[in-house]
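Might you be able to consider the sequence and fold that I enclose below?
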Amino acid sequence: MSKRTLSVGLVQHACGEDREGNLEKSLRGIREAARQGARLVLLQELHTGVYFCQTEDTRRFDQAEPIPGPSTETLSGLARELGVVIVGSLFERRAPGLYHNTAVVLDSDGRLAGKYRKMHIPDDPGYYEKFYFTPGDLGFTPVDTAVGRLGVLVCWDQWYPEAARLMALAGAELLLYPTAIGWDPRDETAEQDRQREAWIISQRGHAVANGLPVLACNRTGFEPDPSGQGAGIQFWGSSFVAGPQGECLAQAPVDQETVLMAEVDLGRSEDVRRIWPFLRDRRIDAYGDLLKRYRD
C-alpha cells in the first residue's frame, strides 16, 4: 500500500486544582504540536483538573460540565483555528446525578465529530471511579474525522483486548487512549517497573493483535490524596505511540511535561494485516463463551 503519513502530537503534563491553568497547558501543547506539523492531537484523561477519584467527595461533581459545553467550545475554536483534530477527555454532566468519563473528538473544522463514554470503570484504592462515573452506553464506535476513523477508548479500557478488537472490527484506523495512571509511591521500584511495563505491553499488544497504530497519552507529576489517608499518586507519564506491529515510534519521559510527536503511516496497517491475517483466521463460531463472566 502507498504511504499515508499522519503527524500526531500527544500533550503530557501535570495538573493542579486550577482548572484554567490546566486547560492553558493543554492549549499551549496543542498549539506547539500544530506548529510542529501535527494534524491530530491527543490530550490526557481528565486534562482540565486533578485526578479527583483518589477519594469520594460529592463536591467534585461541581466540576462536571455538559457536552457540548465550555471545554468543547474552547477546544472547538482551537481545532478550527489550527485545522487540527483534537481528542480531549472531560468529566461529563449528562443530567442531575448522572455523570460520565467522556472523550470528545473535535474535527479540524471545529465540529464536535463524536464522543466516547468510558465503558470499563475501576474501583480500586486511589481509583474510586465507580462513585463518580456511570459506565458508558455508546458502545465501541469509532469516530470519523478529517484524518481518519478514530477508535477512542479511555484509561481502564486499555487493559481489555475486547474493547480494542471491537473498535478494530468497526473499522478504526487508530486506537487512542487518554490516560491517568501512576504508582503508589510506597511500592518498591521493582513493582513500579512491573506495573509501567505491563501498561505499555498491554497496549502494544492491542496494536499487534489488530494491526493498528496506538496512541496513549498519560499525565505526569505527583498528586496528593486530598483526604490525607493515602500516599497519593505519582503519575508515570511515558506517553507513547506504537505502530501496527507494536513497534515504539515515540515515547515521552516519566517525569517531564512534553509534547510528544510522531509520524504514523496509516497505510502500513493494510500491509501488516496481509502478512498477519488475524482477522481472517478468527474462529467467530467458537467464541460464544466470551459472553460469560466465567466458564465454571
Remarks:
- The first helix runs from residue 19 to 35.
- The domain at 5-291 is CATH 3.60.110.10 (Nitrilase/N-carbamoyl-D-aminoacid amidohydrolase).
